[in-house]
TrEMBL record:
PROSITE patterns: RESPONSE_REGULATORY. The keyword Phosphoprotein applies. The modification 4-aspartylphosphate is found at residue 58. Keywords: Kinase, Phosphoprotein, Transferase, Two-component regulatory system. One of its GO terms (molecular function) is kinase activity. This is Histidine kinase. PANTHER family: HYBRID SIGNAL TRANSDUCTION HISTIDINE KINASE J.
């Protein structure tokens, strides 16, 4: 068993500074290292530049939305990237069925407004 100090890294893909900063603070308090992407175009660049353990994906990010971005992650040739847990964050989960999330390759999702206890629980579930 690795020691508790092994830092896990979470990529947060979110264009709202408020949500981004809150999410980052919450996860940093849990000792996660954070990598940020403000749009779908940055997500893949960040994943290729940084070893990441989990992706928190806002569905409504600019350039490439979270669903399309997740599909690109799933098609990526590197298994360290295409196998990553992708947790969708969406303010309009009702617009999508679980079927659509699965089809895009989403591992799990959290509705907005974010419940930070649920956020921490879900991230721990996939990153531990």
């Amino acid at each position: 068993m690795p020691p508790e100090t092994s830092t896990k890294t979470v990529l947060i893909a979110e264009d709202s500074s408020v949500i981004l900063n809150l999410t980052r603070k919450i996860l940093e308090l849990q000792k996660y290292k954070i990598v940020l992407a403000r749009n779908g175009g940055e997500v893949i660049k960040q994943l290729e530049a940084n070893p990441v353990d989990c992706v928190l994906m806002d569905i409504n990010i600019p350039v490439m939305d979270g669903m399309e971005c997740t599909r690109v992650i799933r098609r990526h040739p590197d298994p360290a990237i295409n196998q990553l847990p992708v947790i969708a964050i969406t303010g309009n989960a009702n617009n999508y069925s679980m079927e659509q999330f699965r089809e895009a390759g989403v591992t799990d999702y959290l509705p907005k407004p974010l419940d930070f206890d649920a956020l921490v629980r879900v991230v721990k579930q996939y990153v531990s």
